[in-house]
Amino acid sequence: MSFITKVILVTGGNKGIGYAIVRNLALSYASLSSSQPLTILLTARNPALGQNSADKLHEELKPKNVLTDDGGIVDLKFLSLDITDEQSIKDVKKVIEKDYGGLDVLINNAAIAFKGNAFDVNVVRTTFATNFYGTLNLINHFYPLIRPNGRIVNVSSSAGGLHIVNKALGQEFSKEDLDMDGLIELMKRFEDAVEKDTYKQEGWPRQAYGVSKLGVTTMTRILARRADKEGNNIKVFSCCPGWVKTDMAGERAPLTPDQGAKIPVLLALDENIVIQNPNGSFLKDKNSEL
Ligand SMILES: NC(=O)c1ccc[n+]([C@@H]2O[C@H](COP(=O)([O-])OP(=O)(O)OC[C@H]3O[C@@H](n4cnc5c(N)ncnc54)[C@H](OP(=O)(O)O)[C@@H]3O)[C@@H](O)[C@H]2O)c1
């Protein structure tokens, strides 16, 4: 069986930046000269919210004639996917294998952030379970599905920059030979330090979300090194969408979700951005205000 459709999967696509990524992927892809059909898999953990968002997008995009229903080359489908649920990941993997034979781009957008000042080991564990371990587990399952020349785009954050930890920890996170086990060990060290309340002395910040995103940005570099070694031409990038008005960031944020979607969409589709930036790079828009 041959599969001619290019396939892009977006996690957390039911709202916020994820929703805008799906919409802008459809619009940008349709404006390219490629005539190869594209399937976008909008995924969400809540089936009702996910299906509603897919239906809303079908309506919104109707006048643009980019979706297959309207004579375009982009097929938009909803799949239920909770990145913290092993069975849900396995179910989606089966669908992709059977219906599409592989994936061309995986956009890891889903994440959580506690509101306000909440901080203890449970906040850290819950945040890590989605943002770090959920993303990593999904990548581990889906990496074998990514076709040669494919891409993984991790929506991280400037809030997870190396500046949030002390110099010694920063050096550990940036070591050229850090592997995934070493990174997991660092993330566990933070959890332990928060539990023992020694995190300040050890050079960690009072931030579960920031450290989870430092983990995502670091994971990206490790995966890029792995892909380079394997020689499959898979590119892995992380990015910051900027400070974007969404349920996560609130009303004060200056950017729209469409503006936040700009870098992730470029990383998914643009040929030049991949040539200009080494594998494993972290990208942010210079106007992102983060
Ligand atoms: N907004 C900003 O200013 C900003 C800045 C820097 C980075 N980011 C990053 O940008 C990405 C999108 O954020 P956003 O602002 O659009 O946030 P948002 O509006 O809160 O949307 C988050 C999305 O992730 C989904 N999600 C959460 N846990 C999930 C799980 N276990 N499985 C599957 N989906 C899950 C949510 O689903 P539900 O609707 O079911 O909760 C929702 O669709 C995140 O990675 C965030 O860290 C945002």
TrEMBL record:
Keyword match NADP: yes
Record Pfam families: adh_short, adh_short_C2
Highest taxon in the source lineage: Eukaryota
A single GO molecular function term of this UniProt record: oxidoreductase activity
Keywords: NADP, Oxidoreductase
PROSITE patterns noted in UniProt: ADH_SHORT
Coiled coil: none
Family: Belongs to the short-chain dehydrogenases/reductases (SDR) family.
Protein name according to UniProt: Carbonyl reductase [NADPH] 1
Source organism phylogeny: Eukaryota, Fungi, Fungi incertae sedis, Mucoromycota, Glomeromycotina
